[in-house]
Amino acid sequence: MPLNADQLKKLVVGETVAIRGAATLEPAGGPGDKVFPPTHSVDDRNKNKPGAKYAFETRRIGGHDVTCVLIDSVQSQANRMEEALQALWADKQIALPVVSVDFSSVAPEVGRITSLTAPHRIADALLRDSLLDGQLFRLSDIGKSFTDASTRNATALFKVCPTGLVFGLWDSTGPKGGLGAKFQRGLVSEIVGINAVAGSKTASRIDPLNILKKAADIYVAVDGKERWTTDASSAKKENGEPVKFGKEGKPSEVNHGNVTPSIDSVGGGVTIDEARHTVVLSLASLRRLGFTTGADEARTVLAALALLAVFAAESRGHDLRSRCLLVPKKGSALKLEAVGRDGSATPVDLDLAGAIALYNEVVDNLPAGIKFEKPAGEAIVVLQPSPKLADLVKKSRDLAVAEADVGDV
Amino acid sequence: MLAIEIELLTGRYAATAHNDRGRAEWPPHPARFFSALVAALHDHENADQAERAALLWLEQQNAPSLWVDPESRVGRRQVLDVYVPVNDVTLGGDAAIREAEAKLSESATPATKRKAEAALEKVKREAVAIDAQPSDKALKTASALLPERRTRQVRTFPVVVPEMPTFAVLWPTADSSTHRAALEQLCARVTRLGHSSSLVRCSVVDRDFTPTLVPGDEGDVVLRVVGPGQLERLDRAFGHHGAFRNRILPARPQRYRSTSSVTALSPGAESVFSTDWVLFERVGGSRPVASRATDLARALRGALIEVHGNQDLPAALSGHAKSGPTEQPHVAFIPLPFVGHEHADGALMGCALVLPRELASSDRELLLRLVAKWEKERSNERGNLTLAGGTLPPFIVRRVDVPAKAALDPARWCRASTRFLTATPIALDRNPGNLRSNQGGTARKAALEAQQNISDACLRVVGVRPSSVEVSLVPLLPGAQHVRDFLPWPGRPGRTPRVRVHADIRFDAPVRGPLLLGAGRYFGLGLCLPVEDQ
Asked: Are A341 and B203 inside 8 Å of each other by CB?
């Protein structure tokens, strides 16, 4: 029987410490296929060490040391869960307070940014520098409402950004500086690859036109739009000499010709036996949040929201990055259990459909005073980029285009 | 018996070591756990009195034992740089408006009020209006605001994955009956330990645990624990840092030893010097390197003699009896250099008073009182002491219980090992001959003589001879200096300067340090670092 609203409320209000989930995943191409973990910067000392870009770790499994690798970090998983929630909300399946700002007119590739996708959630600088009804966001009523939120009274933040209470939030650059609203995350999710061995990847290019290195000298064209030319007479001149494109005027400087194959072992992916996905929702930390009204209901909504986030992200598949697609191993999809005060675990039955229904039900049960005002898919407010910000972005982009040296490929 | 069980719900522990930002802490320090309890205490506006009393009782207890996986059973994640987006990029319009509004509310006369209103209107306009000639800074800020190009800052997330995700903090002899209920309430509210991603389950349990780590002076592991007054200290400190400024956890160091005989190497031989050190950490002034060690050692000794008022220190402290230099080991004045790491530069990170193992407790007391007197009379308002003398520019130190720098950790110099490399050269008791000679055989004979010399020195200090000694004039540890960089020792008129060499010393069985060898061993020469034998 899938978890229902009453049962969840009992878990949240009672003594259950956490709801924990585990899943075993494998590369979509089957066990033994290569996957690409997240890369980190490598210092000079290690720059030629195989696999140096990845965060390896040794785990003790079954009495042996096993080399593992981080496949998706806590922070990255949180971002994915928020994106998944936004997709559900935009699809009008759930009601959720969301603040959004539309940058399409200013920066089309940025599009809409919301309190779910902005790097620092509702406290993000982008929202801060945007306008609500002509007024800077943090000076508006909504913007001021959560300035004084704290763990002792999280009501205001619950009404405008409940995901901040699940994934954590620190309004460190708001009006109160470092003393601003600070909430720890209550949901932690991480994916680690087991028995990881660093591999190599190759890179090369075969030119379909088979242009040889010595085919011609490339010069900078006089006409900026044309960019380059092989005709020395119509090239840009400096001191009477035609200016070569890039360093030596080779066809490769304008992206033609073959590229010698190279082997990269530093960031060449890893093979893993399997990946473990662990997710923990701390109900005890939800119980530490204080509310002026409807505390039990609010905490239950946060728990349901967290569980929904987990399943929403899982249902989208673990397509973590290029060449890193993981799928659940047969029979090892995400299974939840409730962890009691004494460490005992009781299974919890839930899937995406159940999580959506559960969330909607507990949201409906919110008492007056902390109800979610807007229906599914509608933001509580829509901000506009300030004219100043819009203009600055546009100007800085124009500048970037003009300044980009034609030699900068 | 009070036993608190903590389960790492995510299977891992993420907390940075207090003295090494690039390393995760393990085992979890009891002081950190106490802080988590204090944080739980303050969940509510008015702290529960019973809970408060429970913590006041807990801080009075002895340092707890631990039931926890040892280092050998713990996996560590490589600590790599992670770039996280910042939030302090902003055009700042709202801050300017708030300031103008504040000025308006403060204005008293109608005239100032009008001016303030006008200023407010102006600021409001400028906050959103398009600027015809925007500054470079504004352009940079705007482009850095967008998520894809947001400025990023480096952070690290040290993580440890123990084989057993549960551990326990134990007070075997404590009677917690009066405070049990309050402690249970507090533990229920401890939701994380260390980084916020280290979610935990914490509860008081009745099970019997066999501790794996117990407090013990011969231990290798140093953990931060709390003492009486900790709750008040933390409350006071919170007033300063408000939970967001950088701060150091007040704590006292406690040595722990492993109870399992399997994991611990039981060294047969021990140094005549103890692991009981009085530490001074460099906080300012000059940055001398290890080659100036003897100057600093003399300055330290000189400072204590000066505070004492006369030269009549007991032999155990000064090394001089009525009839001349003593045979018994006495207090050593040891400057501690940063050596042994890839980027070590040999800089002196501080200094220590290393007490001999067989020091009479009255002498020990005298020394500690002398140090206290020195601190009281000569320290400035920040508690800093200055060491200077001869050609040594002022070197400012502060006495510390728990050093932040790894180079100052006694465990680093004292741990048992079968191999030692010199951080500062050994001053040989007898001239071995010309180590630099080009003449056939002379240099070789001198090297053998030097090796024998050092073997004798080891016998004198740790009671066993090494299985092999190799000597060198060039440094063997990263950060150590060439012997020629050191000033002559003893460097007094009329005294023959000793020949100094670096050495690579190996023993058959592990020897517990500190290994201080040779003629200058009481003044920082012949300081040896235990290293892994490969």
From this structure: yes
Map tokens 């082997």 to a residue. Answer: A263
Question: How many CB atoms are located within 10 Å of the residue A289 CB?
Answer: 24
Task: Tell me, rounded to whole angstroms, the distance of Cα B56 from its chain centroid.
Answer: 27
Q: Which of the residues B7, B10, B137, B152 would you substitute to probe the A interface, choosing the one with the greatest number of A C-beta atoms within 10 Å?
A: B10
Residues of chain B with Cβ-Cβ distance to A339 below 8 Å are: 7, 9, 201
Q: E strands, B408-453, where?
A: 417-422, 426-427
Q: Note the pLDDT tens digit of each residue in A86-122.
A: 999 999 999 999 999 998 888 888 889 999 999 999 9
Cβ count within 10 A of residue B180: 14
Which residues sit opposite A278 in a β-bridge? Answer: A22, A190
Count contacts between A and B (CB, < 8 Å).
Answer: 201
**DSSP H helices in A106-206:** 125-128, 141-145, 155-160, 162-167
Q: Maximum distance among all alpha carbons in chain B?
A: 100
Q: Report whether the peptide linkage leading into residue B490 is cis, meaning its omega lies within 30 degrees of zero.
A: yes
Q: How far apart are CA B96 and CA B128, in angstroms?
A: 12
Planar angle of CA A144, A150, A152, nearest 5 degrees: 130
Mean pLDDT in runs of 10 for chain A (409 residues)? Answer: 92 95 92 89 77 87 88 95 95 95 86 92 91 90 91 94 95 85 94 91 86 84 80 81 83 85 85 94 96 95 97 92 90 93 94 95 94 92 90 84 55
Helices A295-315 and A5-13, interaxial angle, to 10°?
Answer: 120
In a 10 Å sphere around its CB, with 0-12 CB exposed, 13-18 middle and 19+ buried, how is residue A391 labelled? buried
CA B456/CA B454 separation, integer angstroms: 5
Do residues A199 and A269 touch, judged by C-beta distance below 8 A? yes
**Cα→Cα distances B456→B273, B416, B418, B460, B505, Å:** 16, 20, 17, 6, 12
Structure tokens at B293: 């060690």
- Cα separation, B204 vs B187, whole angstroms: 7
As a whole number of angstroms, the distance between CA B451 and CA B461 comes to 15
Residue A112's DSSP bridge partners are A102
A103 contacts on B by Cβ (under 8 Å): 146
Pairing of strands B221-225, B252-258: antiparallel
Which tokens in the block code for residue B304?
């204590």
Please compute Rg for chain A using Cα positions: 26
**Is the backbone of residue A82 left (phi > 0), alpha (psi -120 to 50) or beta?**
alpha
Residues of A in contact with B156 (CB under 8 A): none
| B87 in contact with chain A, both atoms CB, cutoff 8 A | yes
Average pLDDT, chain B: 87
Q: Which residues lie closer than 8 Å to B442 by C-beta, 6 or more apart? A: B433, B434
The distance of Cα B442 from the centroid of its chain, to the nearest Å, equals: 45
CA distance B364 to A188: 51
Question: What is the ipTM, given to two decimal places?
Answer: 0.87
Read off the amino acid at residue A64: H
Q: Which of B142, B150, B197 sits opposite A392 (nearest CB)?
A: B142
- The span from the CA of A127 to the CA of A101, in Å, is 7
- Contact, B374 vs B304, CB < 8 A? yes
B95 touches chain A (CB under 8 A): yes
CA A90 distance to own-chain centroid = 17
Residue B351, H or E segment: strand B348-356
Tens digit of each residue's pLDDT (9 = 90 or more) over B390-407? 788 899 999 888 787 888
CA distance linking residue B220 with residue B223, whole number of Å: 10
- Residue A252 Cα, gap to closest chain B Cα (Å): 28
Q: Tell me, what's the pLDDT at B263? A: 43
Alpha carbons A386 and B128: distance in angstroms, whole number:
6
Residues 6+ apart with CB under 8 A from B105: none
